[in-house]
Amino acid sequence: MSKRDRQKSPTKKKRSPSPRGKKPDLSAPEPGSDVEVKTPPKTRASLPRRGKPKNLDEKQFTTVFTQTKREALDQQAEAEKVKAAQQEEVTAVTRKRTLIETLPYRVELINHPKRRKPLSVAEHKDLPRGTVVKMHPVPRTEGDQLKTIGFSSLQRTPSPYGNRMGDHLVYWQGRLDELRYRLYDMTIEEAAAELLTMQRDAQAWMSDLTSFGMTQFDRLPDAESRVGPLENYAYKVAELCEVAMDGGSTETQAKQAFSGAVAQFLAYLNFLPYTTVRAATDRGSTGSGEGASRRLLIEFEKDGIAAEEERRRVLAELEESGESSDMDEDEPRQALDEDDPMRQPLDDALWNGFAFDAAIRESDIWYVLDPSIVESISGSNQQLKDIVAGLGKLMSDVAKGVDTDALGALRDQAESVTKQPGAVRDVHLAAGRIRDAADRLLTMLGTVDDKPPTRKEINEQLNKATEAARLAAGAVTVYESTAAQALERCADLLGSQLHEHQQTMVPYTRAVVASDFLTISDPTTNEANVNDAANAATRRLEQALRELRPALFEKGDPKRLTEVLKAVAARHREQGPIVVPPPNDWAAHAARTELTVEFKPQAKPKVKTDGRPATPAGIGGMGSHTTAWAIEKQHPDALMRTAKNEKACVSALQGAVRNDVVSDVMRLDALLPYDQLEAGQIGNILATAYEVLIAKNGEQATTAYLTFRNALPYATVDAGDRTFHGEDENGKESDTFDTASLQHAIGLKGDELTNPRHHDADRKLTAAIQELEAFLADKPPSGWASNSALANAARASIGRLKAMRSKVRTDTATAVNAKEIGTVRRAEHKAVWTKVRDFRRTL
User: Fold this and answer.
1) Nearest CA among 474, 410, 417 for reference residue 439
2) Which residue, of 82, 498, 522, 642, is most buried by count of CB atoms within 10 Å of its CB?
3) How far apart, in whole angstroms, are the C-alpha atoms of residue 717 and residue 750?
4) How far apart are CA 746 and CA 743, in angstroms?
């Protein structure tokens, strides 16, 4: 397939050809989904321009309707009357169509004329449910200074495509880190003011009809559906920032308002053109090692922080002693040597966050580099025209007989078109309709019946085939027009988005300079060299093109490759210089937060969670919760039900931890899978328990407690179905317990017990014992080992592990021992569920 599946459906009447150089937009969504949209911030414009339609006038409406074919034609005829009456220059209409499985056809006539009214900052109270922001970022402060912002990995901004998230082109985690960097060490009031500045920069294009951002916005097929959300998000950011900056607000009110403003700001960014594009599949794009790349970048930044602290310490000592120094006052920034082993990995990590596959797919660049795409589409379309003409000729006089062999051959030809790799989905679907019509005709002719098919029945099938061919022909016209405008489109999209990505990565400021990702040409302004940045971007683009379509490069570079890369670089340079500001210490506080907790001591419930805690060591993915997470996340509220203040809430959770580490559940530790024991799960349990015991406030205590509970033996198992079952806060006791997954885990453990040598049990148990003993042997004790209750719990675990090792060595462990797991976990579930039930009755 030559291009992402973007269905555009022409009308069922003749259409005037698109003027040369004008290309209709054809980024149509799948049935039932929204279309892509993204609008660039002030100097970070990121949207390619879609050609204006050229056969409907500027006031042409967007109509999506499901009607009979005749009604659809009537609608189009009416639109043509409006065009003739106004006698204005018309734009080739962008028709996006989707053939659904049953008639009548769903015909989508979508045109997007140039916007004549700027967007504004305004509240919209009647937006679709899917555009409501539900994120709850958690600002984390030390004293009154913001150190980082916690984001749950399961929190999502609303998507312009409804339930489908699409693919982010620019590294989304980088956008989060950009906030952490820009707002680091500010008070909440200062951070809110800076966030408001960022929002105003991002929305500057909205009031300027001539801006690059507005040009890109005009190209979006769903531009009008994004107006409300964009205006509303901008309004909410301003409103909430004003509350956060209001000196009369309490600390809690300011933090909550700031959190909401961050969420609205991210939602605004997500609705900008080409921030997100439709994914190639329902699952979306697969990752490209972004997690590992970010870890490398964060560690490099943290190493730089440590080195700078040491440098400043030396400077201070020299100054105090009166000695002179040739060291700079400011932290030096320079690229690593080209042969430095860290240089290339850093550069790779900085580029890994950009979704080259999605950006290239969206950009139409293949239309420029591979002319055979349109040739193939046009050829398939001509085949369909010939097949339909053949059907009409064969069925012209049924009374004289029909050559069913010839009819079957036409049917087979239509079937072959549905499988042609060069044809686009529009043509494939039309071919399928024509094949089905031919099938139906064969069936009618082959019926053992006194009556031959009526003319009406025959015409009905012929009309279906003719209509499908017309739709395919119109779609092909759109693709041909797209190819004519592909160079401009791909240069705009790729040039601006690559620039946006490089700008977004500057929070990793030490890595950016060290790897030569960006070259600072003017130390007084910290501006990166414009040409170097553009050249670096196009080098990576060319590399991605070669990796994605190696066959296209086998016989030499495509003729227009140099032309394309030059156009992309030119658009990149037009975005302006990228500023690489001095580093700060944000990365030292930037550990990724999987679980975020909002704690309100006087509310009911007191706890609001987003995301889930990390799974225990040795478990892949999220694991399966034996007690549904919907129940477990309410457990803290059940424990704190009678607490009068925040201090009492923290105390209640700490008391629960002290009980849990000596409970029957904890005594299952020696029955944990050997891999999880070797990976350090018992140490993780004790470490998270310690975090609860030293927590200073409700948020810290609740977050640590839920993480602790998730790490307890068999709270999460690496077996069974990962899909959520019984995730109902009011679910029944039996419905919220994952018996199947737990029984599967018990069966696996039984196998481990009866085949210890096969599972290397002795070595793994010994490793777990030695790890705990090493912690206890530290002098002075630190972490959990410094707490007597947890140290005693560790000693008890060591005793149980040694007992299990003894059974392994004497072959006396049996699968019967594993049955205890089910008994204990079921009793624990019932106890937790009962507490939660009683709590919910008070709501």
Assistant:
1) 410
2) 498
3) 14
4) 5
Q: Are 39 and 47 in contact (CB under 8 A)?
A: yes
Query: Is 356's pLDDT higher than 50?
Result: yes
Quote the pLDDT of residue 624: 85
pLDDT average, residue stretch 418-437: 80
Q: How is 119-165 classified by DSSP, letter by letter?
A: ------SS--GGG------EEEEETTEEEEEE--TT-----TBTTB-
Q: Pick from 568, 595, 581, 578: which is nearest to 496 by CA?
A: 568
What sections of 353-424 are H helices per DSSP?
A: 356-363, 365-369, 372-394, 404-417
Percent of the chain with pLDDT over 90: 47
Mean pLDDT confidence for 49-55: 35
833 sits in which H/E element: helix 819-840
Contact assessment for residue 94 and residue 25, using Cβ atoms and an 8 Å cutoff: yes
Q: What is the pLDDT of residues 85-124, one digit of tens each?
A: 444 333 322 222 222 222 222 222 233 456 678 999 999 9
120: alpha, beta or left? (left if phi > 0; alpha if psi -120 to 50): beta
Q: Are 520 and 583 in contact (CB under 8 A)?
A: no
Q: Choose between 287 and 555: higher pLDDT.
A: 555
pTM given for the model: 0.58
CB 219, CB 37: distance < 8 Å: no
Q: What is the chain's percent helix, strand, coil content, to nearest 5? A: 55, 5, 40
DSSP string, 501-517: HHHHTTTSHHHHHHTTS
